[in-house]
Amino acid sequence: MQGYVPGEQPRGGSVVKLNTNENPYPPAPGVIAAVAACASADLRLYPDPAATLLREAAARRYGFTPAHVLVGNGSDDLLTMVMRTMVGLDDVVAYPEPTYSLYDTLVTIQEGRSLTIPFPPDFTLPPALADAEAQVLMICNPNSPSGTFTPVAVIEELARERDGLVVVDEAYVDFAPASALPLIARYQNVLVLRTFSKSFSLAGMRIGLAFGAPALIAELAKVKDSYNVSRIAIAAGVAALEDYAWMERNVARIVTTRGRLSDGLRTRGYEVLPSAANFVLARRRDQDQAPVHAALRERGILVRHFATPRLADALRISVGTDAEIDQLLAALPR
Ligand SMILES: Cc1ncc(COP(=O)(O)O)c(C=O)c1O
């Protein structure tokens, strides 16, 4: 949902697409081969509703059992399952803001209530979250759109002190220094969400993973669409995990380019928050960036602008290839 901005889909020609945090590099060759191998008469058959092969592969890779893992049609699908399971009329979901806008949409669909606590300017986690009266706490880490990272120890303290569910949305964690996955073994109330859309270069395939205590995973599975992940996506996910080194190589390149992008933006007068993701948030204090966003768009360069009071003077820019970042920097006003 976040990716859909009317009028901002590329219409062919050479578009530099830095608005939805996709990976500029292709998926691993083994993934493309696995997808091609799926193009057979077997497509007449339904996929495994439990996505067993992918859950087994994920369990092996991350050191859990398949009962700790649920597969989603992207992590958006997993977020939907969380909200459907946990949130009813007037139930409260707390999270710091600004963050991933889908949380609010999904809470509203459930007729629940969002309790939002503003991030301070440095985007450290607001201490008031610890006492928020809410059934569910959402923490996007690294956070979008800020790119900032909360140390896992801070999240662990929240999980220890709170009874309710703590959901850690780790869509961007492969670009960050640490993951909350180890908490799963120690806390029954922690759920960690991952996606293959960013670090694994598979946004078009729609694969997400949830990790949690088996009892929690079993509850979420009750609201899952039966065949939520296709045969092709299951095969692609297994192959992606088998070539983990490919993903890590691309992440390393993106992290290097992220440094160049941040430095280049600072040289051009932007404040850039330290990013642990594959995008950066660049701000020119009190200067609305809507005209800059529009001017870039005229030149075929798509970045993200949020027309909200807190973010109007900022642009969120995905880390593309070095050549794409050079084009962006050259097109920005000095
Ligand atoms: C914070 C966050 N969570 C989840 C998602 C959804 O990812 P997926 O493509 O796996 O549905 C995104 C996508 O941009 C995101 O930014």
Q: What order do the helices and strands follow?
A: EHHEHEHEEHEEEHHHEEHEEH
Largest sheet: 7 strands, mixed
Number of strands: 12
First-residue to last-residue Cα separation: 33 Å
Helical fraction: 25-40%
What does the average pLDDT come to? 96
- Approximately what portion of the residues adopt beta-strand conformation? 15-25%
Strand order of the largest sheet: 2-8-7-6-5-3-4
Instruction: Say which molecules are bound, naming each kind only once.
Output: pyridoxal-5'-phosphate
Number of helices: 10
* Poorly predicted runs: 1-7
Structural write-up:
Helix 2 runs parallel beside helix 7 (231-242), helix 3 (75-86) runs parallel beside helix 4 and helix 8 (244-267) packs parallel to helix 10. It contains ten helices and twelve strands. The strands form three sheets. Strands 2-8-7-6-5-3-4 form a seven-stranded mixed β-sheet, sandwiched between helices. A three-stranded antiparallel β-sheet has the order 9-10-12, covered by helices on one side. The longest helix has 24 residues, at 244-267. With 334 residues, it is α/β, with parallel strands linked by helices. It has helices at 29-37, 52-62, 75-86, 102-109, 152-161, 214-221, 231-242, 244-267, 290-298, 322-331, and strands at 16-17, 69-72, 92-97, 113-118, 136-140, 165-169, 190-195, 208-211, 271-272, 279-283, 301-302, 314-318. The site of pyridoxal-5'-phosphate (PLP) has 14 residues, from helix 3.
